[in-house]
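Q&A log
Question type: sequence-to-structure
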Amino acid sequence: MSIQLSGACYGPLQQCSVSAPGGAVIGIVGNDGSGQIELLRLATGQARPDSGEALVDESAQLLGPADNLEIGAAQTIAIFHTFALKDAPTRVRALNDIEKQRREGASILLVSHELEFLLDVADEVWWMAQGKIVQQGDPRDVISRYRTAISKQLRAHTAVAELHPTLRRGDGRAKIQKLEILDGTGNHAVNLVSGEPVSVRVSVEFTAPVEDPVVGIMIRTRIGFEVYGTNTQLEGLKLGPCKAGDARRITFRFVVALCPKEYTLTVASHDPDGVWHDWMEDAVAFSVSDSRYTAGVANLRTEVSVEKG
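Response status: OK
Response body:
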């Protein structure tokens, strides 16, 4: 092992025990202040622990956010957010140099908030929180669990989603006043967990008579791929006739059978023939997380079995 910490305490690091093999790229994730830079300083020999042990190679390089992304010949290479502001050619050249050093047995520690980037380049991921490594292992598994934890943290600070449609149109006979996403406990949420029940609540006020209004929703991926849509007409629910000043609050309930990804929610009030009263394209954005990686959009919760013979 080219890096081995045993019960190391230094700054926010508390009783940190971990080892990194030679010939591996280790991605490191976690909220700022969790001890990432202190870990890198110990791993490169730029600091000694206040207590515990740090067994590291003398040949080491530590790069910070403002440093040039130039990878040297060292047995330990520690990179702290150095990729973040670099252009594509610089990043590619650096990754080629990292691969060369990895093949020669170097240990590369790579701290980054770019989770998809770490999924592409890391052989293993360490998740740090409150000065400790809370999980390490397969990048997809660890990063999925980290995303779930982030989602739970964000829920504590989630207010009613503000309406910021990319496009709004219609003849004005109705106005969408509010669009709410509620989790399984009835709390407002824009960070959902795959598999949980959710409610989408649409509040509409009519400014003119409408004989047979229809209210619908559409879920899309961030790049505009249509995932799921329905409306009150398809669901057999009649809202009218409505006169000016009437209001309706419609709630769509379903299970979040979606893969971890970012999504948008479009909402509309319209006539049965499609004439819009109020159409709000990508009115709110929300994200879905899960405890493990799943590919695609629909999370079908597959169960797998095997038989011999």
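Response note: The longest strand covers residues 276-289.
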